[in-house]
Amino acid sequence: MGKTTPVTSRRALLRALTATPIAVSTAIASPWDEALAALHQHYDDKPTSPLRSRAGRKLSRVRYHRAESFLPDRHPRLDQDWPQFLYRAGIAAQLGLSSHLLDVGFPDPWCARHIRLHVAKSLAYANATGLGHDCPDMARLAAVLDPYWKWNQPRLFGEPEPDYDGFTVEQVRPLLRALLDRVHEVTGHPRPSGWRRGQREIRS
């Protein structure tokens, strides 16, 4: 019979990342190393090794809950203000992705310095470290939102709005919902208080 190669579960990998960087290299081989090295080189970022901590996990939960609160769905009047809708969409997406990055052990100061408000970059790092949200439409939306501050800028003297790549409110909503659902699933964070009631109100 042929040999089978043991598969490292995400849970086992994250347990190793909670210990020390040395433990990752000696006790368990991280499948993220190569992908992270490629991203560091592509973006010219200072390399970092994810290391989980209780503080990071706690902050990750806060970021996920804030992401849910920033969803444009909770502010129906934004449907009539497309730039503000996309601005809040960018904040929600970035907070959700930040929740994942903090959960797997990225230092928050490193994220603030290197990722900043770049949603597409945040999505790339998240997918490289186990988020597993390889949705082409979400990747396209992330590029539209990146960096999200541009949707909150005043347009003077007839300056055109940034390109929104043909997206509509009806298309953006389910993409954001799917992203945050994935973050919830992968991180294991509980839904924020009142989440189910809010979902019923949105559907009504």
Topology record:
Blueprint: H1 10-19, H2 21-27, H3 33-43, H4 54-70, H5 82-104, H6 108-114, H7 119-128, H8 136-145, H9 169-187, H10 195-203
Helix pairs in contact: 1-2, 4-5, 4-9, 5-7, 5-9, 7-8
What gyration radius follows from the Cα positions, in whole Å? 18 Å
Specify the biggest β-sheet.
none
Total domain count: 1
Based on DSSP secondary structure assignment, what is the total number of beta strands? 0
Structural category is mainly alpha
First CA to last CA: what distance?
A: 58 Å
What overall geometry do the principal axes of the alpha carbons give? globular
What sequence of helices (H) and strands (E) makes up the elements? HHHHHHHHHH
User: β content, as a range?
Assistant: under 5%
The portion of residues assigned to helices is 55-70%
List unreliable stretches of 5+ residues. Answer: 1-9, 19-28
Number of helices: 10
Distinctive features:
0% strand; plasmid; 204 residues; single chain; 60% helix; disordered N terminus; TAT_signal
Briefly, what is this?
This protein has 204 residues and is an all-alpha fold. The protein contains ten helices and no strands.
3D structure, described in words:
The protein is mostly helical and 204 residues long. It has one domain (31-203). 60% of the residues lie in helices and 0% in strands. It has ten helices and no strands. Helix 5 runs parallel beside helix 7 (119-128). The chain is globular. The model is unreliable at 1-9 and 19-28 (pLDDT under 50).
